Amino acid sequence: MSYTRITGIALSFVGLVVGAGFATGREVVQYFSSYGMWGLAGAAVAGIIMALAGTVFLQLGSYFHAREHRLVFKRTTHPIVSILLDISVVITLFSIGFVMLAGAGSNLEQQFGWQPWIGSTVMLVLVLVAGMLDVNKVSRIIGLLTPLIIIAIVSVAIYTFFNWPDDVNLVAQRSAEIESPISNWLLSALNYNGLALILAVSMTLVIGGDYLDPREAGWGGLFGGIAYAIMLVLATMAMLFNAELIDGTSIPMLTLVDDINENLGLIMALVIFAMVFNTAIGMFYALGKRLSAGRENQYRVIFIVGTLLGFAVSFIGFDILMQYVYPVLGYMGMFMVVVLVGAWVKSFSRIRDEATKRARLRQLMYLSLHPDKELERKHNEEMQKLVSESNLGDKELYNYISDEVATQLDDDDDVDFSIGEDYKLLADENQAEAKEEKTADTYADSLAQDSVRPADESPSEKEEKRSQAD
User: Fold this and answer.
1) Residues 208, 199: Cα–Cα separation, whole Å
2) pLDDT tens, residue by residue, 378-419
């Protein structure tokens, strides 16, 4: 396993779940600190579940080589359940989108005293413009601000430590007076997990699908979840022990940073606005792509209409929307988490075995592509056997592994290997041998020659056979 890849997965997962709602601090107040000291227990429970869910989602994404969430839903659940989960994700995309438009107005209102509609309108224009451009590049740039949110949370927590309240119990009681839409602290923590995970499930599964080894994906999710849990507890503590200061504010985190230093508060307001934009464009862009699937030429119309509808709904108000919309999404997310965790438990032995096979395939492919090493005939036979036993399609898995190993060799300065030259040359040689020898002595030959082996089984056919065998 590669610790570099695990770290990258963990950071990607944290960047997903630390969204605009977390950055504003409003979610933390509503779901945790409003329960007083029990809020800290709730944050700890939510953190543990987040670590577990991160492991599950990323491993499932890796196992199925997911390119979008519907693939995993279809392979792990009943068709009706799969449709319900897909609908839930679509509803979440729209709902979080219009909540973000409302949040943009509240953010600038609190910092600059502007009318809420001004900030919401500015955000609307930015989202509409960005939706016509390369959204991935824009979001990648804004995503670089995630470390600033982490720094802000840690800084506020340190500030709270050095300004500890004289009467902790009194402050906790004051915090518990803040209204919460959910009556029980434990249910609130579970609801928060559902909300955060149904929001992040699409990209989490796709991120997992970018990595070959389910074990690496799982460890990345676990460590990312632990890091998130620590930040959640720190943020809850900061909100809990500053209850009097943040009471009645729409953006609690901004209030705390502004209290530390007004200049830092200005910077924080801009960072939060950027995070809100990142979340909003992500939601409406994904919504437009999902609803225009199969009719891609209508994407722009669907995107614009969806965004304008969200803008209209946003005038209900940020606080009201969060109080009523978020819990509903949270319950849908709780159902989704139970379904996917159940599927993961049921498939755990298969995922573990597949991880072992892919690790061995990577080793064999390394021997095959390395210019100073040689792949023996028995290794070719072993490679062919391992690929045929995988849950992925044969050609899909072969290309997946060969591309990853080729990139690894190309990045190694100690190896004389170039993707542009050696990798292409090797492929040409394999194809030439296949045409000349008309055999299936090596797996690369069998891929170049459809006549030497049965047609490639689809991943769904392989998965169905395994399910029947179990």
Assistant:
1) 16
2) 777 887 888 887 777 777 777 777 877 777 777 777 777 776
Instruction: Name all domains of the chain by residue range, CATH numbers in brackets.
Output: 3-345 (1.20.1730.10), 350-469 (no CATH)
- Whole-model pTM? 0.77
Predicted pLDDT at 345: 92
Whole-number average pLDDT of the chain: 79
Q: Which residue has the higher pLDDT, 341 or 324?
A: 341
pLDDT tens figures, 16-75: 787 767 778 888 888 898 888 898 999 999 999 999 999 999 999 988 888 778 888 888
Helix axes 69-76, 318-346, angle to 10 degrees: 50
pLDDT for 137: 63
Is 7 within 8 Å of 220 (Cβ atoms)? yes
Q: Give 456-461 contacts, CB < 8 A, sequence gap 24+.
A: 456/393, 456/394, 456/395, 457/393, 457/394, 458/393, 459/64, 459/65, 459/75, 459/391, 459/392, 459/393, 459/396, 460/75
- Residue among 191, 190, 197 at smallest CA distance from 221: 197
Start-to-end C-alpha separation, the chain: 28
